[in-house]
Every structure is written in C-alpha cells, then in structure tokens.
Amino acid sequence: MQKTLLLFVSFCLSILVHGQQTRINFTEYELPNGLKVILHQDNSTPIVAVTVMYHVGSKNEDAKRTGFAHFFEHLLFEGSQNIGRGEYAKIVEGAGGELNANTTFDRTFYYEVLPSNQLDLGLYLESERMLHARIDQEGVNTQRNVIKEEMKQTRDNRPYGRLLSETMSRAFKVHPYKTDVIGTAEHLDAASLEEFIAFYKQFYVPNNAILSIAGDIDIEKTKQSIAKYFSEIPKGTQPIFRPEANEPPQIAEIRDNFYDNVTLPAVIQAYRIPAQGTEDYYALNLLTSLLSGGESSRFTKEIKDKQQKALYVGSFPLALEHPGIFIAFGIANMGVKPEDLETSMNAEITKVQNEPISDLEFQKLKNQIESEFVNRNGSVTGIAENLANYEMYFGDANLINSEIDRYNKVTKEDIQRVAKKYLTKENRVSLYYLPNASKPAPQVTPEPKTESSVPSQAQTPEKPAKETKKKKKKGN
Q1: Average of per-residue pLDDT values in the chain
Q2: Rg of the chain over CA atoms, in angstroms?
Q3: Among 154, 201, 348, 376, which residue carries the largest CB count within 10 Å?
Q4: Alpha-carbon distance 368 to 251, whole Å?
C-alpha cells in the first residue's frame, strides 16, 4: 500500500513538472559575415540578456601557450578603441545592468543583463568587443597579474583546488583536455603581445560566434539594431583550429597519489565516457542522479549517512564536446582511510551494475532530470546561454525544447548497461588526493663506503699497489 502511494505521488510530481514546461520560441538566422543570431522574445519582465558565445576554449590553444582562452575572458573587458580602459563594467552598471563571462574547455561566453530599453547599448558593447578590442601591452600586463592572483585563490591555495586539473592531466595523455582551463603562469609570461593579437584575430570573429538575445524585445526592431552594429564586422579570414578527438582508449587502470595542503584525504575516480549529446551520455547523466542526486541518493544515503565514511561524496559526467570523463569522488571523514572510502564507492557502483533499479527510484530520477531541465531555463540569461550551447555543439537550438525527450528514452536497463560498460577498473583513473602531512619522507641513498686503509690509485705508486694485492691474498 505504501509503495503504491509513493508511486502515485511520484507520478503526480512528474505531471506537475511536465505542466511547468513552457516551449521556448525563438528566431534564428545568419548574417553574411557568418555570425549566427538567435532571438527569444519574452515581454513578461522589462529586462534583456545580450550574450555572445565564441567557439573557443582551452582545447583550441597551442600546447605551449595554455590559458589563452581564459586570458581573453578577462582581457576583452579592458575596453576598445572607442571605450576607455576599465570603462566597460562602469558603463553597464551605470545603465542598471550586470555583466560577466566564463570559459570552459570548449567555449567562451560573455553576457550583459540590462533594462530592455538599453538593448542597443548591449549590442554596441559586444560589437566593440568583437571588432575593436583593446589589446595592448598595458592590458596584457594588468590581466597577467589578475590571473596569477586568480590561480592562487581558486587553484593553488584553495583546498582541493587542483582536484580537477590533476585528474584531467592523468585521464588524458594526448587530447588538449589534459591541460587546465586557466593555464599556467609560465605560458602567459612567455607569450608576446603579437601572439595575443593573433589569437584574437583567429577566434574572436563573427563566423566563430553566436549572438543570442533573450528578454523584452521586439524581434523586427532587434534585427535592425543587430544589422546596424554587426553587419559591417568582417568575416575572419584564418582557419579556426579544431583539435581532433584522438585520445587513444585506456586499457588499464591508472593509480596515483597527489599531495596538497588539505586536512582530509579525497578519492577521485575518473572513467572515460562518450561526448555530450550521445545516447550513452544521457544514461550516464541519469546514473549520476542515482548515485548522488540529492540526500536520498545512493552515495549520500549509504556512504555519507549510514557508514559515515565521507564528509561529501558525489559524481558527475563532464559535459564536453569531445569524449570526456565521468567523475566519482569523495572526501573522507576524519580518521577514515582513503582505501576504505574507495571500497564503499566501488560497492555502490557494483550494486548498480548487478542489481535492478526499482520503479520508484527510476521515476524519481526522471522527475529530477525534468525539474533540472525546467530550472535551467528559469532566467533570460539561462535561456540565451542554452540556445547558444545547443546551436554551437549540436547545430540545433531547438534542443532547448526537445532534449528532455532524449532523457525520457533512457531505460533502467540503459543505466545498468552504461555502468557496466564504462565504470570499470580498466577504464578509470584512481587518484588519492592526500594531505601533505602524510607524504612519505624522501629516501636518502647512502654514499658508498670506502676503506681508508686502501690507498687510491691517485695516491699510490705502482709498487705499493702490488703489495695491496698480496695483503688481499693473505686475507683469503
């Protein structure tokens, strides 16, 4: 009776979530210079999100010049030929708006959220960024210092700040995903101003970008404004560097330790998986929800709450354009050995592989995914970014409405199948992230002893050397 009631409640929640889904209508077209444009009109609130997504991330960089894409995330706020240095943010904030940007392995995203009567201001600012960005030695030097400080705060001096970068560097041997998105200070210091300018001219061009606008707009008037600010920007003339997805398959487990300034050990397991958008990726996303989606998930309920082996334990697949990794990780509780935490994590994965998932648990997973799908489109910025993402990665912006159908095609058996196929020992990196205090002391190799009674050849003439041989004979 109780199980039937729970299934009924879960079914009702599913209907509620479906009812909350509202179709995202949009208009899309392309300018002669190759700039893709996506427009979504929502006049419910007098705000507008003006966004530009460039198809450049850390995977597009020269291996000897890592961190360029993230560097430009900062550098392109320096201003332009017509906007004074440091004035970009002041202009937006002075108009009552906000702005920001982010960089991933695969793309860079800039946005302004403004009162809708400031739409043209947002278009002007983004067109200036695309055509007339200020790239000079003063700005480069300034942003070098800013990013070095960011490296310290977010990676080098932050507990577990190197968790992802250390994992990726072991999971990938060939593909550029092996390098940290933020790059290295050494590469940025070594780069010349001419190299930064060349990177800008190659990647920050209209034919490598998507202009996505969502909010309180009039479609036809917005098209006219876009033509005014963007149609005269010339198309890029250089070929856009796209690395191949050429990482060789992993055939044996990679195990390693990494020591850092942390108190509690962590266990990281990284399994090779297909790229986002593939059928198996959707099943792996549901597997993530099963293992760590909320307080009632398997990892949390069993390892954190019942066994009390972990301060935190979770999992997630990296949504990457090329084949990526599924990460399971946990931070051990005080006094818990990483080996014990790893054993418990493996046990829960083995259960998924060998035991059927209940109907109730499976319905809960579907409800979670549907709820997340709705929430991602809960703001004009989220809608603009998702439209650009779907267009950039899949060439289909309408996935903002239909991707949920791909999740709904996943069965319980699919979740078990991908757990068996990808979450195997041979297909993973197992990394222990350990406190510096537990690092073994370096072994000192003793210097070979010499007998002081035996003179060296440099000190001994020929005759004494013969006497030494006689002494050795007597000793025998």
Answers
A1: 90
A2: 29
A3: 348
A4: 34
- Whether the per-residue pLDDT at 2 is higher than 50: the answer is no
**Percentage of the chain exceeding pLDDT 90:** 86
Tokens 């709705």 identify what position?
Answer: 374
C-alpha distances in angstroms, 265 versus 39, 270, 317? Answer: 48, 17, 22
Tell me the CA distances in angstroms from 74 to 93, 108, 145, one per residue in order.
Answer: 17, 11, 11
Place of tokens 């597009």: 60
Q: Distance between CA 78 and CA 138 in Å, rounded? A: 10
**Residue at token pair 């800039």:** 110
The C-alpha atoms of residue 187 and residue 69 are separated, in whole angstroms, by 12
Given the DSSP bridges, would you call strands 428-435 and 266-273 parallel, antiparallel or unpaired? Answer: antiparallel
Phi first, then psi, for residue 454 (nearest 5°) are -100, 110
For 56, the 3-state DSSP assignment is coil
Q: How confident is the model at residue 458 (pLDDT cuts 50, 70, 90)?
A: very low
Q: Which of 130, 239, 146, 134 is nearest to 188 (CA)?
A: 146
Residue 388 tokens read as 């650009």
Alpha helices by DSSP H, listed for 409-475, are 412-422, 462-475
Q: Which amino acid is at 257?
A: N
Q: What tokens were used for 164?
A: 């992802």
pLDDT at 449: 61
Q: What is the dihedral of CA 124, 126, 131, 133, to 10 degrees?
A: 110
**pTM for the structure as a whole:** 0.88
Encoded tokens for 246: 């050429």
Distance CA 283, CA 369 (A): 11
- How many of the other CB atoms lie within 10 Å of CB of 246? 8
Map residue 319 onto helix, strand or coil.
coil
What's the rounded Cα separation, in Å, for the pair 297 and 124?
47
Tell me, what amino acid is at 464? P
Mean pLDDT along residues 432-455: 74
- Cα dihedral across residues 396, 399, 405, 409: positive or negative: positive
pLDDT in tens, 171-187: 999 999 999 999 999 99
Beta bridge partners of 133: 80
DSSP three-state, residue 249: coil
Express each pLDDT in 349-379 by its tens digit.
Answer: 999 999 999 999 999 999 999 999 989 899 9
Side chain identity, residue 48: V
